[in-house]
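Entry 12.
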Amino acid sequence: MIDGVIFDIDGTILDSMSIWDKAAEMFLNSMSIEAENGLGKTMFSMSMTNGAEYLKDRYLLDMDVDAIMAGINNTIEEFYYYQVQLKEGVEHCLKEMEQIGIKMVAATSSDRQVVERALKRLNVMNFFERIFTCTEIGVGKVKPDIYLAAAEYMGTPPKDTWVFEDALYAIQTAKNAGFRTVGVFDNSSIVNLEEIKRISDIYLKKIDNFDVFLKKAPL
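Predicted 3D structure (tokens):
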């Protein structure tokens, strides 16, 4: 059964994962500073504060840490506000689900302001009954709280609620909480691709492979 669908946003609906690897580099480039190779990987495990401190020390920036963090956040906002695009087939998928009458919400780890601005610009905001954010829920997708809140809002039991995600850890969290899962390909998760295929109830290389989804998850 498909009573409701919960869509992740970054990497599933929006082709946005690259900004999280490149934000620091783009920030430096805006000041005509050439970033080192692999800066995104170097900073991947750092907090925002630690990352800003690293940039200040490594590139001798004449700015305080708060100003550096604000600059990086501004770079991310600019990307969502004006540049990010939908992943291929997303609009088609959402229209098909709407026509069938499937309830749809979104669940994101990003800030509400940036994702809503992007979804409105790309004319897909109206497909979702509500947007849930990890910040507002109070915990990330390492725990199922956001999925449970979304399902409760729709009034759909987890066993008949499908979660579309691109990240392995999020798929695992939803599955462990009793949700049905759809793994969606994104290049940022390619290192975990085989495990994503293994644990997902359905795997879609492209999100508009809607017929595949309906055949494996009949209404």
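Annotation: The two ends are 5 Å apart (CA to CA). The longest strand covers residues 103-108.
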